[in-house]
Write a structure and sequence with these properties.
The protein is mostly beta strands. It has a single domain (2-22, 38-191), classed as Oxidoreductase, molybdopterin-binding domain (Sulfite Oxidase, Chain A, domain 2). 11% of the residues lie in helices and 32% in strands. The chain contains four helices and twelve strands. The strands form two sheets. Strands 1, 2, 5, 6, 9, 10 and 11 form a seven-stranded mixed β-sheet that branches. A five-stranded mixed β-sheet has the order 4-3-12-7-8. Strand 9 and strand 10 form a beta hairpin. The longest helix has 8 residues, at 91-98. It starts with a strand and ends in a 16-residue tail after the last helix. The model has no long low-confidence stretch (mean pLDDT 98). The protein binds the ligand Nc1nc2c(c(=O)[nH]1)N[C@H]1C(S)=C(S)[C@@H](COP(=O)(O)O)O[C@H]1N2 and molybdenum atom (MO). Residues 29, 75-77, 157-158 line the site of molybdenum atom (MO). InterPro entries: OxRdtase_Mopterin-bd_dom, OxRdtase_Mopterin-bd_sf.
Length: 196
């Protein structure tokens, strides 16, 4: 397993970002109800500024090569959970398969609960950004985003869309659900970029 819990060294002095409190629990934070999903009709798409748009059924997605990483998780509301073990498909793998075009600068993630979140492309093209379907070796619980969620240990966790079904590469920045409501576009926990 790859341990990326030292990635904070790139951003700050302390593993626990300023203004955060460590918790051993794994709280659930969702804007609404946990959406239902059907493995027979579930579809994941990669679209936008790419050479090849991609589409996966659940079975196809599960056949993709995966990585398991030990990561930290920082919620913008002030709690951090250390040593989360996520298994999933690296963002960079999908970006490579799709062939991101030179004019792409930004990324939008879309989810089953109509949640969206955006990040600059360079913040997504990192080894630690995973489309994760397992947590601590077990299928991701539905309230935590099962069947599939994004994890972004270098950014506040609202950048990690639970129930993710699509990623769109953009040639201009657009804002996601919380970003339109005043949360930070870049969301660096060590700079306490909570609000914009
Ligand atoms: N689709 C979707 N993804 C989401 C959210 C949401 O409401 N819907 N909440 C975000 C927020 S604010 C946080 S802190 C994390 C929480 O993940 P957890 O519920 O697994 O702790 O998911 C993020 N991803
Ligand atoms: Mo959050």
């Amino acid at each position: 397993m790859k341990d990326v819990t030292n990635l904070y060294q790139e951003f700050g002095d302390e593993r626990l970002p300023p203004g955060q409190r460590e918790t051993s629990k794994f709280p659930v934070l969702s804007k609404g109800e946990t959406p239902t999903w059907d493995p027979d009709t579930w579809e994941f798409t990669v679209t936008g500024a790419v050479e090849n748009s991609l589409s996966f059924t659940w079975e196809e997605f599960r056949d993709l090569p995966t990585e398991t990483q030990r990561q930290d998780f920082h919620c913008v509301t002030g709690w951090s959970k250390f040593d989360c073990e996520f298994t999933g498909v690296p963002f960079t793998d999908l970006a490579e398969r799709a062939g991101v075009t030179d004019d792409a600068v930004h990324v939008m993630f879309v989810a089953l609960d109509d949640y969206t979140t955006d990040l600059p492309l360079e913040d997504c093209l990192r080894d630690e950004v995973l489309f994760a379907w397992a947590f601590d070796g077990k299928p991701l619980a539905r309230e935590h985003g099962g069947p599939l969620r994004v994890v972004t240990p270098h950014r506040y966790a609202y950048k990690g869309a639970k129930w993710v079904t699509g990623v769109e590469f953009l040639t201009e920045p657009e804002l996601g659900y919380w970003e339109r409501r005043g949360y930070s576009e870049t969301a660096d926990p060590w700079k306490e970029e909570r609000y914009s």
